[in-house]
Design brief:
Mean pLDDT: 89
Strand order of the largest sheet: 1-2-3-6-5-4
Number of helices: 0
Oligomer: single chain
Largest sheet: 6 strands, antiparallel, barrel
Strand content: over 45%
Low-confidence stretches: 91-96
Number of strands: 6
């Protein structure tokens, strides 16, 4: 997969601990797609099966939060789709 690299940060469903891991991704506006290489050797994406869960990515010069959902296709390939939360408005204001 070509694309950029980022670090995802998430909380483990069972442990409650915070983890960070580098991943390659593709982005189209507020949708980030992560194709997990060798998913059978990695566990992080399993935190986002079913209804998914919150995630943070290092994007746009800082942390961006969103909701991630992992899907496994019929060939065992894993894709994690992240819908980013709205970012701060241009100019750095809080929007309130």
């Amino acid at each position: 997969m070509s694309g950029r690299l980022t670090v995802v940060t998430y909380t483990g469903r069972r442990s409650g601990r915070t983890f960070s891991t580098p991943v390659a991704y593709r982005r189209a506006a507020d949708l980030v797609t992560i194709r997990v290489a060798m998913p059978e050797r990695k566990a992080w994406w399993r935190n986002f099966t079913g209804v998914g869960g919150p995630i943070s990515l290092d994007l746009d010069g800082g942390a961006r939060t969103g909701h991630a959902v992992a899907r496994v296709d019929g060939k065992g390939r894993v894709t994690v789709a992240v819908r980013l939360d709205p970012g701060p408005p241009a100019g750095g204001g809080s929007g309130h």
